[in-house]
Each structure stands twice: as structure tokens, then as C-alpha cells.
Write a structure and sequence with these properties.
By secondary structure, the chain is an alpha+beta fold. It folds into three domains: 153 residues, no CATH class; 133 residues, C8orf32 fold (Roll); 133 residues, no CATH class. The protein is built from twelve helices and 22 strands. The strands form six sheets. Strands 1, 2, 3, 4, 5, 6, 7 and 8 form an eight-stranded mixed β-sheet that branches. A hairpin with a 4-residue loop joins strand 17 and strand 18. Helix 2 crosses helix 3, helix 4 crosses helix 5 and helix 5 runs antiparallel to helix 7. The longest helix has 22 residues. The protein is globular, with a radius of gyration of 23 Å. The relative contact order is 0.10.
Length: 472
């Protein structure tokens, strides 16, 4: 039986060619593909020829990781960008965070299609083509649904003699230009999101949390076009949306409870990739809505999705090339638990021990000078207790913990959250002991299944912190 969405298909014919429209001090290039019933509206690029107001914010990814509401996103896409793209991303983040947290009003800039809008302050970039700037801004929008006020318009300004350097600003919906109105909207969206997150955190396993997030989006949203349907605001505040709102709101909830989730687009649709049980799967709450079995599009493998997707709605756009994870061929089965061998490596230069189930990662680190120390323990492919992995970009150190509050605290201090590294065994057969070296800068924590090693380290000055997690 097909899992295809059951409700009526609407087709809106977009503009297939690139056209230029002069509106005040700018030239608009409306690059719109056909918009299907799923409701994705593509980016509209405006080439500015007038004066620009430039932000004086200092770009720093540490300040991004420290930002309020950063738990609603993750660094998956960011970590795969070039240095120039990362610099632009950080600048956009800091400027949007400023608008999210203050009540400064924004002037009306112009209108497009009869809708008035304003602009963020301009953020400078260097070493990027117009295509790269547009791509980075689109990735930024998909990765940061907490910035609900985007309207999909991108303003570019670059000198004719140096097209790879310039400035960029993002369009803001008319309703959120007034600072007090925006503050009210911010309170509404995050109050609702917090209510949902509190419900989700009553569940014990990652799968149960993801499943409840999926249910909350579907059960509290009506598929319907609206003024803000390209924003998570439409889901959390209005209760109506299209695919873009569904996907962005779902990613907010999952990331907030520690489930690594990203949004991805085709030419006409938006859905999610979710890292669950140590592998990535398709999740499409839009297509699940309206089905007799709403779970028909929860954690779908690539083979099943390809067989269902006869119109190409889930064929990713080329802009995502080189950025996306590999999707599991088969659907996720929460009742099927496998096991993975965990490898242990040592960096003789920094003193850090590193742990991974990825054989390719092990081989790469071994090739660049790390010492491979063999197999350490066996971890289940899935359990109720994930072990989270974090990275300190300043010290070059990794940290592993089952305590999500510790994750939140470390990311607030500048650590990068890298998702679930592996899972702790429910059987608690093999204890992995955690120790801390108060004198080290990197390699500050050590984890071992060898109790004798743990006691030796304690005797020479390490602090014994108990059991970190369990292996099979």
C-alpha cells in the first residue's frame, strides 16, 4: 500500500526564467522553480545598488555556540562549510541573534509581490561567489529555524571590481519589523516549543522522543498555506503550515532534546534527515500528515523512499552536494538491536584518547599519526541511553557523556555538539569508567573498561568520576 500523501494536490506554476525587476535602490532576480503542493518557496535574490547599513558585530563561532536558543539547531552543516562560508554563516547568526533578543525596530525596505518587508543589517563576506553566498544563506536558513522572521529574500551588494567580496542581508517579514511585535512573537514561539520539549523529555529513549516530536507536529498542525508558512512560527503559533514549516519545527524539537536533525530540500519540497540509532533516516511529517498510518514516513530508508517518491519530491537539490550524510538503505526498526565494536586511539601530541565505531574514521586518524590501541568495548546500535559526543574547537579535545544537561552547559561554553557517538548498553554488563585529569589542557577526560587502568590513573592524580556508561 502506498505511503503517498492522501490530501488534494495543489500546483502553483512559478517563474522558470530569471527576470530582473527594479524596486527602488535594488534589482531583484526572482529565481523561482515550480512550486508544488508541498509549498517550498525558493530564495529570491536582490542585487543592491544603493547604500547599505552594515552590522558592527564581531564574528565568532564561539559566541554562536554560546547563544540563547542554540539548542534548537546543530553544527552539522556548519562543520562542512569552507572557512569563508563559515565566516559568513557566523556573521548572519550573530546579526539574527541580535534581532531575536532585542526589540529594535526595523524600517520597511520595500515590497515584493505586494508584501512589504525589511532587512537585517548587512554582513560582510569575502572570497565567495554570488552562488556560494546564496547557497550559504540558504543553508543557514534551513539550519536555524529558531530565526523565524526570515521571508526568503536575500540582498547582495558587491563592488563591480571585486565580485567575490561584498555584503549580504536577509529579508524580514513585515509583521516582525516592529521590535515589540517581534518580542511578542519570540515569546509565543518559544513558549510553545518549550511546552512540546517538556513533553518530549518525559520519554526515555531517543526513538520515543523522536516519535513524540513527530506526533506533536502532525497533531497540532493543519496543512494550509499562510503568510508565514516558510517559518516554524506558522506551526508553533498559528497551527497551520506547509512542508517548510513542518520540517523546520520538527528539527527544532528534535535538536532541543539531543537528536541530531537537519532539514533538506528538493526542487519542490522540504523534509528532514534524522540520526537515530547510529544511522540517518528520512523523516517527512508533511507526508505523514493525512495518512491513515501517520508513521508511514517516520525513519524511512533510502530504498523505501525511492520506491514511493515517483515525482522526485525527495531528490535533493544540487546545492546540498558534498554536505549530506548517507541515508540507511533500510527503514529503522526500533526492535532490532545490533552491536558495534568501539575503537580506541591515542594522539601522542595532545595526549587525547579518542573513541569511535567508524572504521573509516579509525583508519584516517591512524594514517595521520594517531596510535591505534585496538578494540575497547562493544556498544549496542541503539538503546534508551545515548552517549553524546562534543568537540572543543579551541583545545582540540573531545568529550563524551550521557548527561544532556552537561551537553547544554558545554555548548554554552563554546563546545561543538557532534550528536550521538554511540549508545550505552541497557544490560550494564561492562562498565566504562570516567576519569578527569585536573592538570591537562587536552585529553582532560579518559574513559576505560579496564578497572585496573582506572585505579592506576587515580593513584597518579586523576580524579575518578565513576561509571560514564556501559558496554555489552
Amino acid at each position: 500500500m502506498s505511503r503517498r500523501k492522501g490530501f488534494l494536490t495543489f500546483a502553483l506554476i512559478g517563474i522558470m526564467a530569471i527576470q530582473s525587476i527594479r524596486i527602488g535602490p535594488a534589482v531583484v532576480r526572482a529565481e523561482e522553480s515550480m512550486e508544488s503542493y508541498t509549498g517550498l518557496k525558493h530564495q529570491i535574490i536582490v542585487e543592491d545598488i544603493g547604500d547599505c547599513v552594515v552590522t558592527d558585530a564581531k564574528y565568532s563561532h564561539a559566541s554562536v555556540a554560546n547563544a540563547i536558543y542554540s539548542e534548537y539547531t546543530n553544527d552539522y552543516y556548519y562543520s562542512r562549510l569552507s572557512d569563508c562560508e563559515k565566516a559568513l554563516y557566523d556573521g548572519l547568526y550573530i546579526e539574527c541573534q541580535r534581532l531575536l533578543l532585542n526589540n529594535d525596530s526595523i524600517a520597511v525596505y520595500g515590497n515584493y509581490g505586494g508584501d512589504y518587508y525589511g532587512l537585517t543589517s548587512y554582513v560582510s563576506y569575502t572570497g565567495l561567489s554570488t552562488e556560494q553566498v546564496s547557497r550559504t544563506a540558504w543553508i543557514f536558513q534551513m539550519a536555524n529555524p529558531q530565526f523565524y522572521f526570515f521571508n526568503g529574500i536575500l540582498h547582495l551588494s558587491s563592488p563591480y571590481d571585486s565580485p567575490s567580496n561584498g555584503m549580504v542581508a536577509l529579508g524580514v517579514y513585515d509583521a516582525f519589523l516592529d521590535g515589540n511585535a517581534r518580542a511578542t512573537a519570540t515569546a509565543k514561539i518559544f513558549n510553545r516549543a518549550t511546552q512540546f520539549v517538556s513533553q518530549i523529555n518525559t520519554k526515555s529513549s531517543q526513538y520515543e522522543k523522536e516519535k513524540l516530536a513527530y506526533e506533536l507536529i502532525i497533531n497540532n498542525t493543519i496543512y494550509q498555506y499562510g503568510a508565514y508558512d516558510q517559518s516554524a512560527y506558522s506551526v508553533f503559533v498559528e497551527g497551520t503550515s506547509v512542508c517548510t514549516g513542518y520540517a523546520l519545527a520538527f528539527s527544532m524539537l528534535c535538536n532541543a532534546v539531543g537528536i541530531q536533525t537537519i532539514s533538506v530540500t528538493s526542487d519542490s519540497h522540504v523534509w528532514n534527515y534524522v540520526n537515530i540509532g547510529g544511522a540517518w533516516y528520512n523523516v517527512d511529517s508533511t507526508w505523514g500528515d493525512g495518512q491513515y498510518d501517520i508513521y508511514a514516513y517516520l525513519n524511512i530508508g533510502s530504498q523505501a523512499m525511492a520506491s514511493e517518491d515517483y515525482d522526485g519530491s525527495h531528490v535533493t537539490e544540487s546545492l546540498w552536494n558534498g554536505l549530506l550524510p548517507s541515508i540507511s538503505a533500510s527503514d529503522f526498526d526500533p526492535n532490532l538491536i545490533g552491536y558495534s565494536v568501539m575503537y580506541r586511539l591515542y594522539n601522542p601530541n595532545s595526549g587525547e584518547h579518542f573513541y569511535t565505531a567508524d572504521g573509516n574514521e579509525r583508519n584516517y586518524l591512524d594514517a595521520i599519526g594517531w596510535n591505534y590501541e585496538g578494540e575497547s568495548w562493544t556498544a549496542p546500535s541503539y538503546s534508551a541511553i545515548p552517549v553524546y559526543r562534543l568537540y572543543n574547537p579551541v583545545a582540540g579535545d573531545h568529550h563524551y557523556t550521557i548527561n544532556y544537561a552537561e551537553v547544554v552547559n558545554l555548548t554554552s561554553l563554546g563546545w561543538s555538539f557532534e550528536g550521538v557517538g554511540w549508545y550505552s548498553s541497557d544490560s550494564e554488563n561492562t562498565a566504562l569508567y570516567r576519569l578527569y585529569n585536573p592538570n591537562a589542557v587536552t585529553g582532560t577526560h579518559h574513559y576505560t573498561e579496564n578497572y585496573g587502568e582506572a585505579m592506576y590513573l587515580q593513584n597518579i592524580g586523576w580524579s575518578f568520576e565513576g561509571v560514564g556508561w556501559y558496554g555489552k
